[in-house]
Amino acid sequence: xxxxxxxxxxxxxxxxxxxxxxxxxxxxxxxxxxxxxxxxxxxxxxxxxxxxxxxxxxxxxxxxxxxxxxxxxxxxxxxxxxxxxxxxxxxxxxxxxxxxxxxxxxxxxxxxxxxxxxxxxxxxxxxxxxxxxxxxxxxxxxxxxxxxxxxxxxxxxxxxxxxxxxxxxxxxxxxxxxxxxxxxxxxxxxxxxxxxxxxxxxxxxxxxxxxxxxxxxxxxxxxxxxxxxxxxxxxxxxxxxxxxxxxxxxxxxxxxxxxxxxxxxxxxxxxxxxxxxxxxxxxxxxxxxxxxxx
Length: 294
Description:
Elements lengths: L1 E3 L9 E7 L2 E8 L3 E8 L2 E8 L1 E6 L4 E4 L3 E5 L2 E8 L6 E8 L1 H10 L13 E4 L2 H14 L10 H13 L4 H11 L7 H8 L6 H7 L4 H12 L3 H19 L4 H7 L5 H12 L3 H16 L1
Parallel strand pairs: 1-4
Antiparallel strand pairs: 2-3, 3-10, 4-9, 5-8, 5-10, 6-7, 6-9, 8-11
């Protein structure tokens, strides 16, 4: 699973136009179709598709396809995303990421209506002439990825939110922003059983469950009688043992497979739980298998 925008910043196929922490604007151009790539958005995002199509499936199972005259608002969370090339041409898109501080700032200055339809996992919108002008100007002025432009990052992101609010879909978009701050609570048990092997932090699991970090800790301990951190370590190491028993793994691949981004942290946790390192455990299992076959 890829965590974005962090993973996008490391790719040769992307160009960071503006960036200030997780608040950033990234130009993306790829030449190979990427199908059903699992991603965790660590910041809220708006993707404007310039060329090709993007297929999105939310964690709740809702799906949609975005074309080159459209854009999509994706709240922070888990998605399966496919970037689809238009024939022999590359897939191109601009992706705008908004951290919590930016969303809070927008909520303070935006004009809200008493309008509350059901919250949806994402929102598809049509591009307007004003938004096209904004995109063209953005690419022209900031396409050289000059770090000196960092100071205008947040104002340019707020400008996009403002332009969307002026469209015919502006009222629905305002409600989509409202829903970010009023997420419904999800089952902690279902969430954790399905995603314990993802490289997510406790704060990410809390957000996905629709809780604050403190409420998540309290509800989790009431459910499992232990902390989320301890439970995650136990489940991840249990899965690592199962995988080693099935076949031979490199330590790096095994760590990533069970949710560890840092291999040394995985080895330390495994040793504390099992008493020996993953490599020693594998060698021990292999020697035992050889003896039993004699």
